């Protein structure tokens, strides 16, 4: 028998474990093994039979296996915060109180109603529509196109032409010309397709102004809408105004006022249209970066003299 088995172990500290240890020693069959293995077996048996009762581990001994809420998505939900959030609120004394609804004038938020002519004229319809155009005596339809992001868009609509009578507007996307898809076409290719088309029938499939959106505003007591524009572009929003409350943004160009095209008009002309409008005004805007790209290389005098600025019928 090896010498380590003959040592007299003091097991009095472990109480009832002494008898179990003696029984284990009597049943062990020892074989010659290398010294490190014997020491490992000794440590293993002692850890099973002689270990004291488990005690709670001191905090911080091992790292956390899972992150806390404070380390996940920026949440900081401590026990105090949870207790405060879950605590019931004291009941309010509502006796003798009457709920009041703020008026539209006090909030400067424009009411949405389908009876407003400006709102109906400026409405951007979803989906696509098909238009049939015919050329005039000069072989023109009064339409200029522009390629933007692999799409073909209406850049100019001349007044009293086939394009204007068909209801085309600045910013409309032309999806097909006589059954041919226009995706990926250049500006020159689109114009050549119109030029080579039959004079009696030109079929266009159009999506209504995908880059534009309408915002309905309400004038305050002084007749102001709450924004400043320069050269047709919104440059400043007045705090707590109707423009601010209804989501008007700077760096956007004004394309229409109550459905009337104002592109190419001077700022005083646009101001006159806004001032002579009713208390509820619907404006159509487009991001400046897209607007300026569409109007690139086109003379302002051509836009002012040729663009259709008439009031559309509803």
TrEMBL record:
Entry keyword annotation includes Cell membrane: yes
PROSITE patterns on file: PDZ (PS50106)
Location relative to the cell: Cell membrane; Cytoplasm; Nucleus
Coiled-coil segments: none
Entry keywords, A to Z: Cell membrane, Cytoplasm, Lipid-binding, Membrane, Nucleus, Repeat
Gene3D superfamilies attached to this UniProt entry: 2.30.42.10
Start and end residues of each PDZ domain: 130-209, 214-289
Domain of life: Eukaryota
Main subcellular location: membrane
GO molecular function: lipid binding
Record-linked InterPro entries: APP-Binding, PDZ, PDZ_sf
A GO cellular component entry from the record: cytoplasm
Protein name: Syndecan binding protein
Organism: Paramormyrops kingsleyae
């Amino acid at each position: 028998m090896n010498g380590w088995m003959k040592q007299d172990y003091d097991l009095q500290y472990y109480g009832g474990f002494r008898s179990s240890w003696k029984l284990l020693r009597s049943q062990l069959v020892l074989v010659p093994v290398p010294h490190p293995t014997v020491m490992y077996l000794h440590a293993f048996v002692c850890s099973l039979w002689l270990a004291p009762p488990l005690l709670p581990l001191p905090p911080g001994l091992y790292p956390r296996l899972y992150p806390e809420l404070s380390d996940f998505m920026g949440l900081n939900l401590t026990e105090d915060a949870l207790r405060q959030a879950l605590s019931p609120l004291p009941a309010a004394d509502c006796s003798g109180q009457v709920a009041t609804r703020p008026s539209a004038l006090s909030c400067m938020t424009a009411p949405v109603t389908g009876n407003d002519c400006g709102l109906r004229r400026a409405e951007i319809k979803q989906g696509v529509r098909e238009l049939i155009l015919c050329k005039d005596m000069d072989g023109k339809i009064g339409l200029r196109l522009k390629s933007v992001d692999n799409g073909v868009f209406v850049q100019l609509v001349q007044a009293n032409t086939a394009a204007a009578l068909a209801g085309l507007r600045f910013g409309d996307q032309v999806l097909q010309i006589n059954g041919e898809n226009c995706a990926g076409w250049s500006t020159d290719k689109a114009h050549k397709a119109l030029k080579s088309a039959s004079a009696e029938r030109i079929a266009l499939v159009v999506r209504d102004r995908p880059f534009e959106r309408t915002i309905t505003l309400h004038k305050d007591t002084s007749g102001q809408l709450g924004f400043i524009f320069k050269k047709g572009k919104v440059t400043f929003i007045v705090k707590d105004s109707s423009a601010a409350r209804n989501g008007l943004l700077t760096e956007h160009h004004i394309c229409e006022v109550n459905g009337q095209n104002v592109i190419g008009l001077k700022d005083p002309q646009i101001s006159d249209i806004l001032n002579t409008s009713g208390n509820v005004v619907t404006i159509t805007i487009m991001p400046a970066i897209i607007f300026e790209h569409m109007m690139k290389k086109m003379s302002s005098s051509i836009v002012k003299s040729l663009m259709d600025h008439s009031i559309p019928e509803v």
